[in-house]
Amino acid sequence: MSTPTVKTEPAPLRLVDEPERSGGTGIILFQTLILTWAAAWLTLVVTNNINDFGTNRALIAGMFTMDELDADTVLGNGIEWRAIPEGLAVPALIGVIAYQLLTIALLWRGAVFAIRALLRREPALPARALRAANLGLTAFSGLFVVFLCGGMWFGYWMKMGPVQMVHLTGLIISILAVIVVNLQPRTRA
Q1: Cβ within 8 Å of residue 34, ≥6 positions away
Q2: Residue 52 pLDDT
């Protein structure tokens, strides 16, 4: 009589309940890189916005006044009533820079928490670090949502396609960053 063989399956993957102190860093390195990149990139953007204020004021003024649409006999004729005075471009740009500075502070805070977790060789972002990272990334996403909605209001997609593409790309990257930062490490049970 032969004995039946029992197949054993590997243990299923599960979320880590408590941080393991085995020295592994798992996904935390990539999460830290993403947060640090977002903070550094936006820091460069706001530095450029401050140093090249005139170019950005002109872009915003062109969008607000809708002059290019006004000059076009076909495109945008139905939305030209949405134009606002060019004089509001400076306060708008100052508001954008202020929001970017706040977002930078939140992103750097999240990045610092992630760096601390990485240096402590934690396998996952602690709850406080994850909250800080998500707050910064939410502000980062919000920046591009406002740009895209504001630009759509003024029909900038008709004459300022490259600007819209930058904003759309920024939103996509921010969404992907939120997904990556919220990944949790998996381990065998």
Answers
A1: 177, 180, 181
A2: 93
Task: Find the angle CA(149)-CA(154)-CA(155) to the nearest 5 degrees.
Answer: 90
Please check whether residue 64 is in contact with residue 89, taking contact to mean a CB–CB distance below 8 angstroms: yes
Residue 79 backbone zone (phi > 0: left; psi -120 to 50: alpha; other: beta): alpha
Contacts of residue 119, defined as CB under 8 A and 6 or more positions apart, other chains included, come to: none
Cβ-proximal residues to 144 (8 Å cutoff; 6+ apart), any chain: 167, 168, 170, 171, 174
What three-state secondary structure class fits 14?
A: strand
CA–CA separation, 76 and 98 (whole Å): 31
**Exposed/middle/buried for residue 10 (C-beta within 10 Å: 0-12, 13-18, 19+):** exposed
- pLDDT tens across 7-44, in order? 666 666 555 554 444 444 678 889 999 999 999 999 99
User: What pLDDT was estimated at residue 94?
Assistant: 96
pLDDT of residue 170: 94
Q: What is the pTM of this model?
A: 0.79
Residues 170, 143 contacting (CB under 8 angstroms): yes
Does the structure show a pLDDT above 90 at 122? Answer: no
HEC string for 29-47: HHHHHHHHHHHHHHHHHHH
